[in-house]
Zinc-dependent metalloprotease (Brevibacterium samyangense), 349 residues
Amino acid sequence: MLVTGSSGRPAPSLRTALTARAATRTARELMPVSAVPDPEVARTLVADLRDAAATATDLVLDIMRLDPGTEDRARNTVAAGEIVVVDRLGWAGANARMFAGLLPEEARGGALGTVQAALARGAGTVTGAELGAALAFLGPRVLGQFDPFGAGRGADAGGAGRGESGAGRLLLVAPNVLEHERALAAKPRDFRLWVALHERTHQVQFAAAPWLRETLRSHTSALLAAGPDLDPARLDAVITLMSVLEGHADVVMDAVPRRTLPSGRRLRKAFDARRSDTSSGIARLLGSLLGLEGKLAQYTQGAEFVRAVVRERGHVGLRPLWDEPSCLPTAEELADPEQWLRRVPGSGA
C-alpha cells in the first residue's frame, strides 16, 4: 500500500530505489487483463499494425518536408528501429526498464547501501511500486508509444540496452488498439494506420534531431530524481518540449490526405473527445508519477503553435525545430508563436 505524503505524491520508503522488476510485478498485479481475441483476429491485427507502421514512414516524411540530407538520415534511422507489437504487460515491462534506466545510478535498485544513500540525501525518487501503479492505470489506455531510449534491431530478447544507436523502438499495444477501434466503431485499417502515424511521427522527430534523445533523457532523469523538489525551469522545458512534439504529431496526422485516410476527420473528433483516456508516452507517465498530470497532458497549445507556424511558412517552416535545442520555442513563444517566428529564421523550400 502506498502512503501519500504532504506533497500529494507517495512518500519515500525503504522501496525508494526503483527497479524494473518491482514495477513490472506491481503492474501485473494491478492491471486489468485484456480480452483474448480469436487467434486469426490476433494474427491479422499484428500484421496490420506492422504494415501500418511501415506505411506511415513515407506519409510522415512527405508531410514534414525535411531537407534531403536530414530526410535520408531520418529514414535510415527509422529503418534501423524496431517495431514491437505487445500486450499490456509487454508495454508495462518495456516502460519499467526504460524508467529504471533513466534514473541516476544512486537511485536505482541494488545493494542496501545504494538504497540508504538515496534515503540519506533526501531524494524523492520514484519507487518501483509507484511506477508499477502508474503503468497499471495507463496500461489499458495506451495505444502505442515511441520509446527513444529502447534498443533497435539486434537487442537481446528482453529488449535490453540503452538504445545508443538512436533508432529506438515503436511499441504498439495490440489488445488496446482492438478494444478502442471496436468501441469507436472505427474502420480497422484506418484506425490502425491512425495509431501508427502518431507514433511514427515521434520516431521521425527523434531521427531528424538526434540531440532530442539526450535532451529528453537529461530532463526526465533530473525530474525523476528530484521528486517533490522539482526544478521549475527544467519542468517548463519538459512541458514545452513534449507539447511541441505531441502537437506536431497531431498536425502531421491531420495533414494526411483524405484519400489515404478516409475516416481521419472522424477519428480526430473521437480521439480528441477521448484524449484523456488514450494519450500516452513518457510525459503522461512522468506526470502521473509526479502528480502533474494536468500540466504534462496539455498538448493543445503545442498543436496551436505548430499550426500557426505552418500557416505562416508551411511545413517546411518547421525545419529549424530539428536543428538544435536553441531553436525550440520557449514557454512564452509556445503561447505566442509570433515571437518564435520573429526569432527563428525561416527555412527555404
Summary: The longest strand covers residues 82-86.
